[in-house]
Amino acid sequence: MPAIPSLGGLRGRGNSRAKGVPVRVPVPLSAYVVDCAVYVGGKRLPGRWSHVEAIKEVRKRHEGFVWIGLHEPDSEQIQGIAETFGLHELAVEDALEAHQRPKLERYDDTLFLVVKTVRYVEHESPTTANEIVETGELMVFLGRDFVITVRHGNHSGLARLRRELDDDPERLQLGPSAVVHAIADHVVDHYLDVTGRIESDIDVMEAQVFAPRSQISAEQIYLMKREVLELRRAVMPLATPIQRLAEGYTRLVPDDVRSYFRDVADHLTTVSERVAAFDELLSTLVDATVAKISLQQNTDMRKITSWAAIITVPTMIAGIYGMNFDYLPELHWKFGYPLVITVILGICLLLYRIFRKNGWL
């Protein structure tokens, strides 16, 4: 019969838990790997692959490439992949952080590309929405025989894009750079879609601003301007990396793929022009709203001033006759009171007609 450990031994081994120290449970790499595939001749090889087995198969055949997709890995889990594929430690560090600007960097024989993904947040009305654009990030490592994607955010999945590429072996025959182009094209297409829907929101907001007696405030326009600024931070910095890939920045991107990147650059230019136009239009709407508010305040002040002038007449006359003097005009005349009331009403009516004719009331 096996010996039963003493209670003292159990307490000793559980001492870290007893003191409240969290016990880290190791998470396998497979929990972060969305997909790992081997492509030879543009076709995906059947079976499930680990990252080690996949790259061994490709280098044994001397053709094809590996595509690994990761979702928000931690430093421990990505370390094995970094060692296997020879990824630079600075690029790996950037891939783990989800607050990078779009950029393109070269580390030895590897390219590191960062792109921002955007998603349009559905809402009932742009005049009441608190969030319109949600952003995420995609990091791409491009090597001679591999491409590794690291994504941050729940809306930046590439499963649909991978299925489309699996059905198009001619594109995959161009190598891993074709995957990078497909990702860039996919992201920029989403930019076009989001900017189209934001344009509709801005049209609604513009109609509200110039509608009579509208209740839209400058704060709501500033909120829309903030969302456009977030979109601008995702779009504008990406122009330089895409242009460099289109101009032959590295031999990892063959000539056949560069022409595709030029098409992506053209689409990105269209998006950039739209975003710049949005920013200018929203600034104009802010100025129009402020002018409208100022005009309304001036109108209100004129009304207040008009009524104050009318009220001043009975107040002044009542103040005079409220003085404690024995000799005031018509003070002891029996028709004095009706006469004063008539004079007050007549002057007030005259002032009212004058202000009304001038548009103050």
Description of the molecule:
The chain has 361 residues and is an alpha+beta fold. It folds into 2 domains: 24-293, CorA soluble domain-like (Beta Polymerase, domain 2, 2-Layer Sandwich), CATH 3.30.460; 294-357, Magnesium transport protein CorA, transmembrane region (Methane Monooxygenase Hydroxylase, Chain G, domain 1), CATH 1.20.58. The chain is 56% helix and 14% strand. The protein contains 12 helices and 7 strands. It has a 7-stranded mixed β-sheet with strand order 2-1-3-7-6-5-4, with helices on both faces. A hairpin with a 3-residue loop joins β6 (133-142) and β7. α4 (75-85) runs antiparallel to α5 (89-96) and α9 runs antiparallel to α11 (255-321). It is rod-shaped. The N and C termini lie far apart (103 Å). Residues 1-31 have low confidence and may be disordered. This is Magnesium transport protein CorA. Keywords: Cell membrane, Ion transport, Magnesium, Membrane, Transmembrane, Transmembrane helix, Transport. The chain crosses the membrane at residues 304-323, 335-355. Belongs to the CorA metal ion transporter (MIT) (TC 1.A.35) family. It comes from Amycolatopsis iheyensis.
